[in-house]
Every structure is written in structure tokens, then in C-alpha cells.
Amino acid sequence: MYRRFPLLFLLVLTLSFYNCNQSFAQSSIQNAPLATTENKVKALLAKMTLQDKVGEMTQLSIDMLSVGEPYNLAKPHQLDEAKLKHVLVDLRVGSILNVVGYEYERDHWHKIIPRIQEIATKEKPTGIPILYGIDAIHGTNYTAGATLFPQQLGLAATWNPELVTQLGEVTAYETRASGIPWVFSPVLDLGRDPRWPRFWEGFGEDPMLAGIMGAALVDGYQGDDIANKYRVAACLKHFLGYSITLSGKDRSPAWVPERQLKEFVIPPFKAAMDAGAVTVMINSGEINGIPVHCNPKILKDLLRNEMGFKGIALTDWEDIKYLVSRHRVAKDHKEAIKMAINAGIDMSMVPMDLEFPVLLKELVEEGKVPMSRIDEAVTRILTVKFELGLFEQSVHSQKDYPGFAGPKHQALAYKGAVESITLLKNEKGLLPLSKNKRVLVTGPTANSLNVLNGGWSHTWQGDDPKYNTPGKLTIVEAIRKELGEGNVQYVEGSKYDKEVDIKAAVNVARSVDVAIICIGENTYTEKPGDLDDLNLPASQVKLVQEIAATGKPIILVMAQGRPRVVSAIDTLAQAALMLYLPGNEGAPALADILVGDANPSGKLPFTYPRFANTLVPYYHKGTDMVKKDFSMNAFEPQWEFGHGLSYTTYEYSNLKINSDRISTKGDLEVSVTVKNTGQRKGMEVVHLFVSDKVATITPPVKRLRGFDKVTLAPNETKVVTFKINARDLSFVGTDNKWMVEPGDFEVSVGGMKVPFVIK
User: Which of 11, 87, 249, 413 stands 20 to 30 A from 121 (CA)?
Assistant: First the structure.
């Protein structure tokens, strides 16, 4: 059930001393009165030079420490000792990130990370360890053999925050097992526009769902103590408004009123900050004409003063330079640095040159960046390093992680995939299939492991099959394993946007009982994922249409990171499943669902559009309902937010509230009875929506205000109870402040409605 996750802002940690006589950092710590994190930081900061401090604010890619040139490094990867000492000792750089384009074996991580830390702690004048960060966004996706589970959009479809926390724990464990203490995750950008190429990286379109899932993932990453060798520091992405672009393209301008920012965009970040997240990555784009990473109203007034965030704020890739080359608000790199640091940036993801610390040092010496701003930023950075326990032990032994990619972790990844897969359509009970059915498996996503994982999988774009985890199955391989080789025929049919052998697929379709057509997208993330047409490519549409002409039943399997429009073919299929990007265990999970060994329970975390130009979320306004003939039924998505079928049936009854009137500070208790009326055990997501009937600001038709996922055996009945406070029904008023407005409301659960009044 939806609950507010307990506040996990980290308590001050009492840490033992790191024995390194060659570093003045250690004597500073040992002489600090009371060994609190705050006192350790103050003592160390007091002895740091300006060069030390600007180095701490610098983050470079591993390219800058490696043999070869950036973007063109030697293979196999190896560190360059001269570069290491120049970057870490001379320039005092405090943070490193990334890989050199592809995943590493754990043994390789345990060669390079300890060496980097050895130079930092023993040869750098400050002895301050490196804070190494990695994009571990659906498992430790840059370590070979690591457990990969569904991308965040699929996790949202599970509606199971406890499971998300468990999967976060797996990521933390396997990332620390790789010697890395910091993950650039979770993404808390709302998925309101499915054209956006990072749609699949977030938790869907609803602020409450995104906030709960984000807090759950932070809880899994950080636990109660990020110094624990099985935990990592989380990084919230991308603050703020990154996904609300006008064009739907990556890193393009957003125009967002302050009211909309506060009511919809900020809440997921606030929930994750309340869960204790210690770092945040700033939006690369601009809002209302001002790049976010040089906007003090967002970075200081909002993030620090209003939201109370105390951790590190870092830029995304090369964003300070982009103030010159893309945004054109700074005349040169030096001016861009001044703007960003003075606005509130603590750390610059530079990441491919050595200018930043040099220019920042000059700016301080010229009085253009105050030392107080530098000390503030470095204090935040050192605090996180101390809280992570890096001064005590920066890298732990591989022997401490015997469960790496083991059966328990794989089982959790499978569970995540099973609970995410969403049955959208099932006419005449076509599914589940009997295991003696003869099937054709076809389509561009049928025989690719890459498309099940998506971007940020082994490589940045996730598109190189040579790095795939050995032994993991594609969709057709998993179906063959389930139904037997003799019952499954495979023809590619089409690529993503090109016909291949549609006639051959049609010929085979005539000889089988069912056609399983696997459609969707190739892998992508960020700018390479921009598109100009949300419709499914014509070659895939043609494949479905021509197989449908044979009269054989069709099951559509959609492996995709965003909802591609399928209205041209939806009526031709008797069943449809949304896979999202389910990870390495996605194909076995799908096969089990197809034959009924698993019962689907996923629900859409977004509104699936019927047409490319009707991109309206479920919390639309009344005026969005007006059709061109002036009827009030314009909201006609392909499938609604929260939709998802099961192989069993559920009956809702007895919707009750504890009072039909509450005060503006009161609580409302809502209960409903749910019964499994079918023949199979299943999991049902119970959604609680509330409608504000009349408000000062035009209200959405409804808003999600709670959810619970319950497991029910056949004929089992459970009473599900929700408790909401009147404050949970507040909105941002004309003065851009939150308000609870008295008036008429309506609770909706399972198609039933009950009115109540706030007085």
C-alpha cells in the first residue's frame, strides 16, 4: 500500500581514522574535536589550498586517466600512470566517472579503482579519496555478468515499491562489488511526453507513483548507512523539468509555469530527498529560457532554501561548456564556469579536458567567484566522501561479495520482469496458450537480447551484442524452451524500419496455430533516441497486417521504451502484451506468462496514446474532454493509465469512507473489498483516485492518491484500506503556494465512487 517512506536523511556518522601517514588529511581528522562528520570536514577544509578545493569540484571521465585519446582509447583498457599523477596529484581532481565505452570485468574494475584510490590517498597532497560514479540504472550495467533487471518504466509497472527496494539493494551490492560507491540513479523526470527518448528511464507520468518508486529505489541503494560496504550513494536525475520539453526531443527547451513545476515536477524529487538521497544531477536543458545549471532561483532558492537539500549538486555531461556552445548565454568557458558555480553547482562533470580547475582557480583569485561559494561546495563533497566511508576503506575485497549475480539476484530480476509485463488485451481468452500449440515467432524484437535491456546496458546505447551476458535468452529462444523446438518456427519478418522477409513469415503463419509478432524499438538513449514520428514504423505495421490476412490469431508482444502508436494494427490482434525493457530475465518471464506458468499483474504507469498527436496524461482537465463535435469524450487513449489484465478476475465491492466530511487538516479513511472471482492465484493493483469537483485552479478530472498491490488466491477476499490526509489533496494556488481548499470531492476505486466534503 502507498505509504510515506520514513525520512532517511543521514545522521552524522562517527568514523574511525584512516591510517595514511603521507596525508595531511589524516592529521586534520585526528585533531578534530569530537569525531563527527561535520568536524572532520571542517578540520580538513581548513588545511586545504585553493588548488585542493577546485580539484575536489572537478569530475573527469576515466578517458582522462587512460592510455590513448578521449573517445579513442587503447584496447584493452589500461590506465596511463603519467596522466593519473597529473590529474590526481597536480590538479587534485576529486571525482572520476564512466567507462571507456563498454563494460569491464570485475577483475578489471579491481585493478583500476584501487590504483586510482592509491594515487589519491598516498600521493595527492590532501590524501582525499576519489568519489567514483557510474550509470548503474537497472543493475550494475557496466560490469560484465552483473544482474540486469527491468528499466525504471517497467519497475513502475510492477506497482511494487518493496520489490523496487530489493532490486536497488542488488544494484548497490553489485556496484560496490565492482569497487564503485556512487550510482547516477534514480531518474525522477516525469514521463508525460512519450516522444522523449529517456521516457523509459523514469517511473511514468504520475508524480505520486514516481515519488514512491524513487524513494523506494533510494532506500535500496543507501539503506540506513551508506558507509556500509553493500550500499552506495544515490544521485537524483535530472533536477529539474528535463522531460517537459516542447519538442519531445532530448535536451531541448522547456516552458513550465512555476505552478506546474511545484505541483507535478518537484514532488518526486522531494520524496526521494526525504528518503535521504545525498546527491542530485542538474538538468542539462533550459526552463523558460534559462539553463537550469546556471539558474540560482532553482539551484539556490528552490533546491536549497525551499526544499532543504544539503547534498552535492553536480552537472550532467559537459553542461558548463554547453552554456557557451549550445545555450549561448556565456561568451567563453571561463564565464560559463563563473555563472554555474555562482548559481550553485558544486561539482562539474567536465568531463574531457583539464581547463575547469585552472579557470575556476583564476576566477576565485580575481574575486569573481567568492571563496565562501567554493567552501560551501567542497564541504558538501567532503561530507559525502566521509559518509561513504571512503577515508576508512575506499574499495572492499571481491571476497566480500559472494552473491554477485547469484541465484537470489537472478530470481529477483525474474520477479521484477514477471510483475512488470502488462497484459493489455486478451480477446476470447487466447492467452494463456496450451503447450502443444504450434506458433510462429516473428518481428524485429523477437531474437535480440539488446532490445530487452535497452540503453545503458553493457554500452551507452546498449546496441552491441558482443557484450551481452552469456546464456541469457531472447524471446524466441525462451518460447522454444517452453513449447519445444518442433512447435516453434522463427522468421525475422522485418527489421525496425525495413522489410526483410514478410512473405516468408506469412507462409509459415498459414501452417501454425498462433502468430506471436514481436514489435517495438531498437535500443537508444538520450539524443540518438530522438524521433520525428511516434507511429510504429510502416514495415512492422505491414508485417502484422499481412499475417492477419491469413486469419490466424495474433499475439502482439511490444518490447519498447515508450508507447509507439499501434492503432493501425491493434484491432488485428487478439492479445497484446507490453514488455517495456524487462532486462536479461525478460524473455523467460514472457514465456512463462504466455503459457500460464505465471499470471500477469503489471499495470500501465502512463497513458498509452491512440494517435501520435493525442498525448494527454490521465490527469487532464475538463476542457481536454471536449471533442470537435462538442461531445465530452475526447479522451480516448489506446489504453488508460493503470490498465492491465490478468488470467483471473477481480470483483470490487463495499467502498466505504469513515466520514463524508473532514476538516482541512483531517484524515480520510477509505476501504474497499476485493475478491478473486477466477480460478487462478493473482496479484491485483488497487488504485485510489480522488476528484476535486470545484477548485480555484481548474482541477484535473482525477489524481492518483494511493495504491496497494495485493495477492489473492481463488475465491479469496481482502479488505484494502487507505488513509489520506486533507493535505494530500492540496494544490498550488494562484500565489504559487500549496493550499487545501474546502469543497466537494469524490473518491473512486474499482469503478465505484463515493462523495465527501472538506469543510
Answer: 11
Rounded Cα–Cα distance for residues 116 and 179 (Å)? 11
- Asked if residue 203 lies in contact with residue 153, where contact means CB atoms within 8 angstroms, the answer is yes
Cβ pair 525, 460 in contact under 8 A: yes
Count of other CB atoms within 10 angstroms of residue 81: 12
End-to-end CA distance of the chain: 27
How far is Cα 412 from Cα 164, in angstroms, rounded to an integer? 10
φ/ψ bin of 10: left (φ > 0), alpha (ψ from -120 to 50), beta (otherwise) = beta
What pLDDT score does 35 carry? 76
Give the residue from 237, 251, 244, 174 showing the smallest Cα distance to 201: 237
Residue among 65, 60, 9, 61 nearest 37 (CA) = 9
Contact (CB, 8 A) for 241 and 261: yes
**Which residue type sits at 530?**
D
The radius of gyration of the chain from alpha carbons, rounded to an integer in Å, stands at: 27
What SS3 class is residue 179?
coil
Contact 13, 37 (CB under 8 A): yes
What CATH superfamily classification does 648-758 receive? Immunoglobulins (2.60.40.10)
| Spatial separation of the C-alpha atoms in residues 265 and 272, rounded to whole Å | 13
State the Cα–Cα distance between residues 583 and 587, nearest whole angstrom.
8
Q: Do residues 130 and 117 make contact, with C-beta atoms less than 8 angstroms apart?
A: yes
**Phi, psi values for residue 63, rounded to 5°:** -50, -35
Taking the C-alpha atoms of residue 407 and residue 399, their distance in angstroms, rounded to an integer, is 17
Q: Would you list the DSSP string of 511-537?
A: TSSEEEEEEE-----SGGG--S--BPP
Per-position DSSP letters for 76-87, written without gaps between them? S--B-HHHHHII
Active-site residue identified among 219, 316, 319, 463: 316
Instruction: Taking residues 197-212, report their average pLDDT.
Output: 98
Catalytic: 316?
yes
The closest of 578, 627, 10, 89 to 273, measured between CA atoms, is 10
CATH number of 420-623: 3.40.50.1700
Question: Per CATH, is 42-381 categorized as 3.20.20.300?
Answer: yes
Going from the C-alpha of 635 to that of each of 120, 315, 320, 371, the distances in angstroms are 58, 38, 41, 55
**Does this model's pTM top 0.70?**
yes
- Alpha-carbon gap, residue 490 to 476, rounded angstroms: 7
* CB contact at 8 A, 93 and 357: yes
**DSSP state at residue 191:** -
Q: Where are the domains of the chain?
A: 42-381, 420-623, 648-758
pLDDT digits (tens, 9 = 90+) for 245-254: 999 999 999 9
The 10 Å CB-count burial string (b at 16+, else e) for 615-652 is bbbbbeeeeeeeeeeeeeebbebbbebbbbbbbbebeb
| pLDDT 10s digits, 206-217 | 999 999 999 999
